[in-house]
Amino acid sequence: MICWDRVGDHLVVGVFEQGEVGGLRRYLTGLRNLLDERFAGYSAWELGMPFPVSEAVDPRLRAILRRRSVGVSRWQEPEVLRPLREAVEAVLVTLPDRGGIVELRSVDVVVAWTRSLTDLRVAMSAAVRDGDPVVASRTRFTTRWLRSLVRTLDAASTKPAEVVPQNLVDSVNQVRAYWI
Fold it and tell me: Residue 87 domain-assigned?
């Protein structure tokens, strides 16, 4: 379970349980690799700019494209997938190497988290749609966890800013020192 809270105007702090940050990093790295593989198949010889040679066949990519825009053509695919790749990278940068405290310091980073986790959930759901029921059951747990992460992050990031008492700031700093 994760706990998000807003501190001040722009800072959103998340506290993950042990192991959750590493799992999230693995999932997002996999999504980044999937996107990079797709981009590697783009060709620039037709238009002088990277462009997909054929429609995406991977069910995970197709699900993301469908979610972002009904009827995405090959021409529009880079406009959908490149911002996702940038968002995934922004999330990976914010994940701590040690400990479970995540600090999102701007609205743009919060938006990157929301987009990345939502599209990761969509991709994972599509990957097991017609697959092994045991794997589907395990994936269902993860996709529910991702949905919960997005919902609680949205709730914390959109709530009105509160004045933070100094003793709470001191407590957060003590926890940060413990985790880091």
Answer: yes
Q: Does 27 map to a domain?
A: yes
Is 180 a member of any domain? no
Q: Do the beta carbons of residue 102 and residue 91 sit within 8 Å?
A: no
Structure tokens at 135: 């794997």
| pLDDT tens digits for range 112-167 | 999 999 999 999 999 888 677 777 888 899 999 999 999 999 999 998 766 767 88
Amino acid at 59: P
The structure's pTM equals: 0.83
**Token representation of residue 126:** 């599509």
pLDDT for 21-48, tens place per residue?
A: 999 999 999 999 999 999 988 876 665 6
